[in-house]
Write a structure and sequence with these properties.
heterodimer, A: mainly alpha, 16 helices, 3% strand, B: 257 residues, alpha/beta, Rossmann fold, 2 domains, globular
Chain lengths: 428, 257
């Protein structure tokens, strides 16, 4: 049987090269300032989500309070920025993310010492507690957290270096892209070191780890600090990007978003959180513009994923990639397309009803009439409700019917693949 | 007592362990010399596994002393005891289920080879650790399963990996908790040979129910009954011991072992 190579293969170089190219080319393809802001936020979110996944996916530590470290990184970075603007410090803007990182490391070293003494549910509870503690402190110490208005800063200061002022968004984007690439590479490298592997071992079986010479607490603590550092880097980049830091960056909603989107992207694979980060920004920036009910939609998506695809999107991709490697993916496409259509039909029906409820509850002043997918719906009209319900019912029924056929085909393919592997091994 | 002056590899002095009001280990004393191979036998509930848990640091004793090469280890956490060269296996396979066979074994050699918590070196570059892991996999005859996840192995393979993880770090005191439990007769015979091979020159303590295995593997037998060692001697002497006959062995032998 072929040995899994531990060195970088040609394929790895291709993937990393591709990642770099995407980071460089993306803002040239989408030139609008809106796109540049989105891309900047995605770059930051990638670092934050990967940092979070050092805990969740690699170490089996469920944290409900990781925004503490990215958020405190943001605050320290923006204070450092302001002190530099006043001439009391001399830190170039390009190094402010590192200041955020060191702040994240510092707070993770202090708070994480307590947190990582425990594992499992207790660990989760302590992170929740520390998250609430810091969030409430943000209201108690306005000098540091800036109260309701937050702390503002101006990233353009001092003399430009090589013509770079960090005034234009595109310059900030490329700084973010650089940090994103280096951080991603560093976090990937971590997965191939003794500490990274023992972190997986602690996730799988903490008890046995102690009997091969390792203190699980020490492994968790080190990983927690590394994760805190990268979260802080993301926070520092956020401060530079937005030029304002408010208390919500340390809040429970932000911590929840890390967990939610890392899970959605797929915690079991290194690249899962990258997908999660892209979705995070799309959801927070685009979806929230599109509909007031965006959190409800996210909740539904989360529910469906937990129930049907607990490995997240990354695991769905990997499972299909495996089918493709065995040359059987073409047999699935004729299932996927009708499934997607049926799914969209069901979604349209459900969305119509959700939007009508929101119209009645939140847009009362505008009356019951509303536009939805080019149709005029009457939120108080029986016809609109019955119509939506019918669309939903048809969509769901169709989906379920198609799903059964798909699932039979899927199982057949998995069986074939298992047989082929068995034959190959017998031949070897 | 100085470390160098100890004649015992593992020594227990009046060790007691209670869980709540129940005393499981009731004043056990035992001295195992370096290189000796000792089987601990006794009826169910005699405290054999508890004794292993105390020696390996899973629990601390309620009172008494446990020494490894003369140094006290009672109450120390498992990882400190492991670092001093005592390794144990578990009755129920205790593996890193989502890691490959190779990774399982490598995790067990990293600390003892000095790589500890390193996050500045790549695993791929650790030649000695990788070679040692391959060597152990060859010893436990799992070469063909090298890249399979531990959770996907057969029962017998998992038992072999359990032993592999235990011996990989090069500990010179090995505790095996019912290594052949749940195996068929032919598997057991092969497995006893394997255990003998991989523990050459080491101090071995094993808990075992299969009397064939016990008499085949051990130089000395300790009989534990209700938390007390009632006999500790060569197999022949233990077999002839009237108290042992009465308390345990008679009934076992009568069952056709």
């Amino acid at each position: 049987m072929a040995r899994t190579s531990e060195r970088l293969t040609r394929r790895d170089w291709f993937v990393w090269g591709g990642f770099a190219v995407v980071l460089i080319v993306a803002p040239l393809l989408w030139r609008s300032s809106f796109a540049q802001t989105m891309l900047s936020q995605i770059g930051i979110a990638i670092i934050a989500c990967l940092a979070y996944n050092i805990l969740l996916g690699q170490g089996g530590m469920l944290s409900f309070g990781h925004a503490v470290y990215s958020g405190l990184g943001s605050f320290i970075a923006i204070h450092a920025l302001n002190l530099t603007s006043k001439g009391q410090l001399a830190i170039p803007a390009s190094l402010l993310p590192l200041v955020g990182g060191i702040a994240g490391l510092f707070f993770a070293a202090i708070l994480g010492y307590v947190t990582t003494k425990k594992s499992g549910t207790t660990f989760a509870m302590i992170t929740l507690g520390i998250g609430e503690l810091v969030a409430s402190m943000s209201l108690m110490i306005p000098e540091f957290f800036g109260g309701e208005g937050g702390i503002q800063g101006n990233r353009v200061f001092g003399k430009p270096v090589l013509g770079i002022t960090f005034g234009p968004q595109i310059q900030v984007y490329y700084l973010i892209a650089l940090y994103c690439f280096i951080s991603t590479a560093a976090m990937y490298a971590l997965t191939r070191t003794p500490l990274g592997r023992m972190l997986n071992a602690v996730r799988d079986n903490p008890e046995r780890v102690e009997f091969v010479g390792y203190s699980t607490q020490h492994v968790r603590y080190l990983a927690f600090m590394i994760s805190g550092f990268f979260a802080g880097v993301a926070g520092g980049l956020g401060a530079l990007n937005f030029e304002i830091v408010t208390a919500e960056v340390v809040g429970a909603a932000r911590s929840g978003a890390y967990l939610f989107f890392v899970f959605l992207g797929g915690a079991a694979f290194f690249f899962g959180p990258i997908i999660g980060a892209v979705l995070l920004v799309i959801a927070l920036v685009l979806l929230s513009e599109l509909t007031k009910a965006w959190l409800l939609y996210l909740g539904i998506v989360f529910l469906i994923m937990v129930m049907y695809a607990p490995g997240g999107i990354a695991s769905l991709i990997m499972m299909n990639l495996r089918v493709a490697v065995f040359g059987k993916l073409n047999r699935l496409w004729r299932h996927y397309i009708p499934l997607a259509v049926a799914g969209l039909v069901a979604l349209a029906g459900a969305a119509a009803m959700i939007e009508m409820v929101y119209q009645l509850q939140l847009n009362e002043a505008l009356g019951p009439e509303m536009q939805f997918l080019g149709l005029t719906l009457d939120a108080k009209g029986i016809a609109s409700w019955l119509g939506s319900l019918l669309v939903l019912a048809v969509g769901v029924a169709l989906f379920e019917w198609l799903r059964r056929g798909f699932s039979r085909e899927w199982n057949r393919i998995q069986e074939e693949i298992a047989n082929e592997i068995a034959q190959r091994e017998a031949a070897a | 007592m100085s470390a160098a002056g100890s004649e015992f590899a593992v020594e227990l002095r009046d060790v007691r362990k209670s869980f709540g009001k129940t005393e499981i280990i009731r004043g056990t004393s035992l001295g195992v010399k370096a290189g000796e191979r000792v089987a601990i036998i006794g009826p169910n509930g005699a405290g054999k596994s508890t004794l292993f848990n105390l020696i390996s640091g899973r629990f601390g004793p309620s009172s008494g002393e446990i020494r490894l090469r003369g140094e006290r280890i009672d109450g120390k956490p498992p990882y400190e005891i492991a670092r001093r060269g005592l390794a144990r296996s578990f009755q129920v396979s205790n593996l890193f289920t989502r890691l490959s066979v190779f990774e399982n074994v490598r995790c067990a050699v990293l600390y003892s080879m000095g790589y500890r918590y390193a996050f500045w070196r790549f695993l791929a570059d650790l030649r000695d650790a990788n070679e040692r892991a391959e060597q152990v996999i060859a010893m436990i005859k799992l070469e063909r399963r090298r890249d399979h996840l531990a959770m996907n192995l057969t029962y017998a393979e998992q038992r072999a990996l359990e032993i592999g993880i235990t011996i990989a770090g090069g500990a010179d005191v090995i505790l095996l908790d019912e290594p052949t439990a749940g195996m068929s007769r032919s598997e057991t015979a092969r497995f006893v040979d394997l255990i003998r091979e991989v523990t050459v020159g080491k101090t071995l303590l094993t808990v075992e129910h299969d009397m064939g295995v016990v008499f085949g593997l051990a130089d000395k037998i300790a009989v534990l009954v209700y938390g007390e060692v009632i006999a500790f001697d060569t197999p022949g002497a233990v077999r002839a011991n009237a108290r042992v006959q009465e308390a345990y062995l008679g009934s076992v032998l009568a069952q056709g072992h």
